[in-house]
Fold each of these.
Amino acid sequence: MTLQEFRESLSQPAPPTPENLALTGLWWDAKSDWTRAHESAQQDQGPAGAWVHAYLHRKEGDISNAEYWYGRAGKSIARNALEQEWMEIAKSLLRTA
């Protein structure tokens, strides 16, 4: 799936790749459902889930919690705009999906 196809899927009622919990978390975030996004990211125990989890806590404004999750993801703390980080994460996850 391309980034464009992923973005187009936001018009649908359900995520296109429900088995990819980290990507599903980003999908719910783009649909403005932080709670479902967080639940999905939490279910992915790997680095991808931790990265989405970090992004979500950064977006929420909980920087100390975000820092913890960036560490779990093996990533530096993001300093770019949230939209840019969302795109970076989505591109990375779609390459491995």
Amino acid sequence: MDVCDPLIAPGVGTPVKGGLDYREAHMVMEIVADSGLLKALDIVEVNPTLDLRNATAQLGAELVLSALGKKIL
């Protein structure tokens, strides 16, 4: 999760200014899903004490859905 820009994922231990935006993060996950090669997925670095209104956790759940084939773009 810390590869995402802090504007969309504030609840991480190592924020990356200029990281992936919402569309880029979902595009990566959709490419993974389209490849059919996904065997395992680990979404890490969500820190609830740093999160704002559960935004990072929500984004993580949405990214998992995209990796499993849900299209949002």
Amino acid sequence: MGGDEIKQTVKEKYGQAALRVAGGERGSCGGTGSCGCDPVSSNLYDAAETATLPEGAVLASLGCGNPTALAELHEGEVVLDLGSGGGIDVLLSAKRVGRTGKAYGLDMTDEMLGLARENQRKAGVANVEFLKGEIEHIPLPDASVDVIISNCVINLSADKRQVLREAFRVLKPGGRFAVSDVVVRGELPSAVRRSMEAWVGCVAGALEEEEFKVLLAEQGFEQISIEPTRIYQIDDAKALLQGAGLDAEVLAREVDGCVMGAFVRARKALE
């Protein structure tokens, strides 16, 4: 499958998810088992975190982790969320960096941007800006961001090397890369890798753990670490694969324990 095909499919699925949320439904980027459905994105946020957020931001959460809980954000910092969706992580980050800081959200989907901006309006948060663009081509200057976060989005890109290259470019010296993503340990069956639905569901496009580390190092990142936050077992794998229209009974045993939600950390060296 080509990069343009992947990008268009992702854009359509997440646009549909935004429209469902606007209609009062829980967001989902596909059928059961896709990102936005159990087991990938259940119970990621504490109720105390989301209590002050607009319902649309919570319903649109399609991630695989909670990067704002794991990233060390400080007063006055500039944060960029790659693939910001309905804006939940941007709004949470804005609270942590305070009035002297700023939180950017970047998304390529008009429907998600519209939803995020409406959520910002409802939340009354001023230190937030949502940008339209692709994570492979970040519309911000060099060395302009202190922290990059992302939630189950980098795996959706067909050109992850370019995403990491751009992340490194926009980070300030000493800046931090702190993202939640789906990561693979070992090899996925070829049927899963070939499936477009599984790609949109945050599985087929996931990087292998060691490959992720190599790509980060190639761009110049240091202090690289990958910490599993949730390892999907055989029942989880069945749910994921059924949602992608694959033979879950056969493939789940091969996928069991190979797919995990993880927190990926790295740092750009001080000059």
